[in-house]
Amino acid sequence: MWQYIIPIFDPDVKNWSAEARLLRWMTFLWLLVGLVVLFSASYALADSRFDNGLYYFIRQLIWLWIGLIGFNFLVRLPIENLLKIAPWMILLVLGLILITLIPGLGANINGATRWIKIGPILLQPSEFMKPFLVLQGAAVFGGWPRLNVNQRLTWIAIFGLILAGILLQPNLSTTALCGITLWLIALASGLPLSYMTSTALLGVTMAVVSVTFREYQRKRILSFLDPWQDPRGDGYQLVQSLLAIGSGGTTGSGYGLSQQKLFYLPFPDTDFIFAVFGEEFGFIGGILLLIMLFLYATLALIVAVKCRHRIKKLVAIGAMVILIGQSLLNIGVATGSLPTTGLPFPLFSYGGSSSLASLFLAALLIRVAREENDSLERQTWQKGAGSREKKLMADG
């Protein structure tokens, strides 16, 4: 019981595979570093808004505790069970995404209706879509040869509707991330190159159309190309982020000593939390963070390569793509390598929906590692038992 309430205490972990144990501890390390950074990044903002500097930090702790309880439950739940409910959850979350598009039902924040408000709680359906999109994407593309034409077209249409719904919120960055994840899962499954090329062209076309018809997206791209042209207007976010990271130098200004988070840098607790990290921990801290992400991605790929079950392999790849890919996209935005988006940094940025989705994805990855190890152990035992039986028969 205690391993669910306090997830870090789990005596069963010693029986897991090395990859599963390492991924679990690296997830906890990632989460811990994120909390340390969020405490610093959010304190001044929370103090000015709520007269309580711990407001965001405490709420994040509550979300993460709930997420870790779910995490510990999911790492014990067979992937097959999750694959059975994935289609229904996809349709449920798609319904919630479409609800956000109905005037008066979706909560409008900063010009986007990405949230549903339930009392004091804001939920972002597109975040909850990510783990189920990985599961169902793996099931569809992993089982592609067994699907008939109607089944293939149905799921392609549903995936397209999901991406269109997120795009209309509008949320181009999450649309792109989900689309790229599905594309990479399909590529890893071995779908014909002609399918992949045509799909990639369609995705690029959708992005171009979205940018063409949405002025704020065009302004973001122009400000990305030259933020100093309008440093107090469209380029303000990126300029302040670059100033923060540049101020950090080699070793950083020191924990809690960021100046840009003091109402110069927009969204220091969410979209631009890496800028605060870069200012306080410097170039060395940034390199260490990238090394952590690299090691996490390497472990995830080892799990995927060792996995002999086609669909589970794709689940591991999809979970890794979102966790690591979204982190790199967030860093890319903060450093001016990519246009400004609204993607949070997994397990760093403040937000309940993002935190729950990230822990769900990490749990999927660890579960695949556990099941592959259990499968190998069973096969080894069966081979050993068979050899002993043959030897006994020969001796008899």
Automatic annotation (TrEMBL):
It comes from the Bacteria. It holds the Pfam family FTSW_RODA_SPOVE. InterPro entries: FtsW/RodA. It is a multi-pass membrane protein. It catalyses: [GlcNAc-(1->4)-Mur2Ac(oyl-L-Ala-gamma-D-Glu-L-Lys-D-Ala-D-Ala)](n)-di-trans,octa-cis-undecaprenyl diphosphate + beta-D-GlcNAc-(1->4)-Mur2Ac(oyl-L-Ala-gamma-D-Glu-L-Lys-D-Ala-D-Ala)-di-trans,octa-cis-undecaprenyl diphosphate = [GlcNAc-(1->4)-Mur2Ac(oyl-L-Ala-gamma-D-Glu-L-Lys-D-Ala-D-Ala)](n+1)-di-trans,octa-cis-undecaprenyl diphosphate + di-trans,octa-cis-undecaprenyl diphosphate + H(+). It is found in: Membrane. One of its GO terms (biological process) is peptidoglycan biosynthetic process. GO terms for molecular function: lipid-linked peptidoglycan transporter activity; peptidoglycan glycosyltransferase activity. One of its GO terms (cellular component) is cell division site. Its EC number is 2.4.99.28. The chain crosses the membrane at residues 22-45, 57-79, 85-107, 153-186, 193-213, 281-302, 314-335, 347-369. The keyword Nuclease does not apply. It is an enzyme of class 2 (transferase). The keyword Lipid metabolism does not apply. Keywords: Cell cycle, Cell division, Cell shape, Glycosyltransferase, Membrane, Peptidoglycan synthesis, Transferase, Transmembrane, Transmembrane helix. PANTHER family: CELL CYCLE PROTEIN (PTHR30474), PEPTIDOGLYCAN GLYCOSYLTRANSFERASE FTSW-RELATED (PTHR30474:SF2). Peptidoglycan polymerase that is essential for cell division. Belongs to the SEDS family. FtsW subfamily. This is Probable peptidoglycan glycosyltransferase FtsW. It comes from Microcystis aeruginosa PCC 9443. The lineage of its organism: Bacteria, Bacillati, Cyanobacteriota, Cyanophyceae, Oscillatoriophycideae. The gene is ftsW.
